Amino acid sequence: xxxxxxxxxxxxxxxxxxxxxxxxxxxxxxxxxxxxxxxxxxxxxxxxxxxxxxxxxxxxxxxxxxxxxxxxxxxxxxxxxxxxxxxxxxxxxxxxxxxxxxxxxxxxxxxxxxxxxxxxxxxxxxxxxxxxxxxxxxxxxxxxxxxxxxxxxxxxxxxxxxxxxxxxxxxxxxxxxxxxxxxxxxxxxxxxxxxxxxxxxxxxxxxxxxxxxxxxxxxxxxxxxxxxxxxxxxxxxxxxxxxxxxxxxxxxxxxxxxxxxxxxxxxxxxxxxxxxxxxxxxxxxxxxxxxxxxxxxxxxxxxxxxxxxxxxxxxxxxxxxxxxxxxxxxxxxxxxxxxxxxxxxxxxxxxxxxxxxxxxxxxxxxxxxxxxxxxxxxxxxxxxxxxxxxx
Length: 391
Known about the structure:
CATH class of the largest domain: Alpha Beta
Helix content: 25-40%
Strand content: 5-15%
Distance between the termini: 12 Å
Shape: flat
Radius of gyration: 22 Å
Number of domains: 2
Structural class: alpha+beta
Strand order of the largest sheet: 6-11-10-9
Largest sheet: 4 strands, mixed
Order of helices and strands: HEHEEHHHHEEHHHEHEEHHEHEEH
């Protein structure tokens, strides 16, 4: 069986050249009926497989679960997230009521920074973060007008298909898996199913079906793309200080202040922003976790740095920006996610790598577990004999 091999597509902050490498391209932009049917059949086979497997099946051989008490101070919780190896989220536990209380993520820290920006000074923030507790975060979100994350959960014996649907319907990136203690009746946090873990499970166990997903990402509508060419002329009166030629994608440059990007994270509910030059060439990516790393010492003044200055403080083990082209196939993309452990891909065009779009794991998962295929109105019973059933 032929498998896709991920190219070397990492970008360092000072990268000026790209290495050309072979990648699996999608076939004709106008797929024939045979290709289309094989594509849809493969999708239905993957969905059927997920319906026959439980969340337990996606558990790694060895893992740990860090649960944080809601009475814990935010600063200590942040230290837990940044421990080795670092994690980007943790379940919350209400010890007074012995029950699950949601998730603590880097987005909570972004909202906290935003809150102090509007209500206090950096000095006040540095002092308050020593005492503010996790249980206060939801009230802070309400004061910012940020939607409270849904208190979702699922049982470990639920099918992976239902778990995936839950993630899509709630726009969540992770799904806590809870059981009940048979003696006490109290809830037990068993694990957390993430989008990445689910897609990796699909990549490993449905490799045969994935090999039939030859159609291009752009053709399938996976991801968010620039609505107009960055080089297209701007009508008189159209351009303003808020004009974004890469709409609807939020972008920044190396001279953009970190705090401006923090605003984007909080107000738009995103977790990464492509960093481009004056020609729209992608030079890096700034993520929410970069902000957390920047302020872990309590130096909130660091938020006044430019993106370029902040990137110089980034850990040397940063894996780089993973890019793809809109003509790449869905099958190639799924393999790339598994091999590079990526959570988003920047779509570029041209030899220099001009920004064209961005693809998140949510985009990929939403397409894979959707109800229909290309050109179909309802999901039909898959004929597995045509594409094989060895998973």
